[in-house]
């Protein structure tokens, strides 16, 4: 899983996101405790406008945009044979946190762009490390995070296909964030 993940990250890095976007790519190990320390440190270090997590799912047949992260139900052991005693991400945190990004809108825009990669939307990131990472990131960022599940390489898409799809998806997400910011500025201006 990790090799495939790195390959897509490499493809995305090669493509970039346009001259105005500063893209940082980090690999997150499949370990609860590492997620709990690494994700906050990435937010502190980079102060990003948006964090987009990408994970490989053996069950995915499309590039899948996850709408939300869940706090409870983490019973599966990680790569270090560890599982949180509380079986949750943030003790006392809300059950579910939605991304501020409208995933249906991103899905429609990317699908209509004729990229040749199927994109869908999901409300369940799977209650394992992907979901755990997403919830942690959503909690820290007040929703300014996204999670994209991709199918394994060659089932049916190549690394290049997935790189192009991620580029298009993230560009749409940034565009939507821009529009939301403008709307907020306008509303503040007229009050």
TrEMBL record:
Q: Catalytic residues? A: 66, 130
Keywords for the protein's UniProt record, in alphabetical order: Cytoplasm, Hydrolase, Protease, Thiol protease
Origin superkingdom:
Eukaryota
Tell me which GO cellular component terms the UniProt record holds: cytosol
Subcellular location(s) of the protein: Cytoplasm
Give the transmembrane ranges. Answer: none
> Which InterPro entries does its entry note?
Peptidase_C15, Peptidase_C15-like, Peptidase_C15-like_sf, PGPEP1_Cys_AS, PGPEP1_Glu_AS
Q: Name one Pfam family in it.
A: Peptidase_C15
- E.C. number, please? 3.4.19.3
Q: Which PANTHER family match?
A: PROTEASE FAMILY C15 PYROGLUTAMYL-PEPTIDASE I-RELATED (PTHR23402), PYROGLUTAMYL-PEPTIDASE I (PTHR23402:SF1)
- Explain the purpose of this protein: Removes 5-oxoproline from various penultimate amino acid residues except L-proline.
> What is the annotated quaternary arrangement, including any partners?
Monomer.
Q: What name does UniProt use for this protein?
A: Pyroglutamyl-peptidase I
């Amino acid at each position: 899983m990790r090799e495939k993940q790195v390959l897509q990250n490499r493809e995305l890095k090669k493509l970039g996101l346009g001259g105005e976007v500063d893209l940082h790519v980090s690999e997150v190990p499949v370990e609860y405790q590492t997620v709990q320390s690494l994700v906050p440190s990435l937010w502190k270090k980079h102060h990003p406008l948006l964090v987009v997590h990408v994970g490989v799912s053996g069950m995915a047949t499309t590039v899948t945009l996850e709408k939300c992260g869940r706090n409870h139900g983490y019973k599966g052991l990680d790569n270090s044979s560890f599982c949180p005693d509380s079986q949750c991400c943030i003790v006392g945190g809300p059950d579910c946190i939605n991304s501020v990004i409208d995933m249906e809108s991103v899905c429609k825009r990317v699908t209509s762009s004729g990229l040749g990669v199927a994109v869908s939307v999901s409300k369940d990131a799977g209650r394992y490390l992907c979901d755990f990472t997403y919830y942690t990131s959503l909690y820290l960022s007040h929703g300014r995070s996204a999670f994209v599940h991709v199918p394994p390489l060659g089932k049916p898409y190549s690394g290049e296909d997935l790189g192009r799809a991620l580029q298009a998806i993230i560009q749409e997400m940034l565009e939507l964030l821009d529009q939301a910011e403008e709307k907020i500025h306008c509303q503040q201006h007229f009050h």
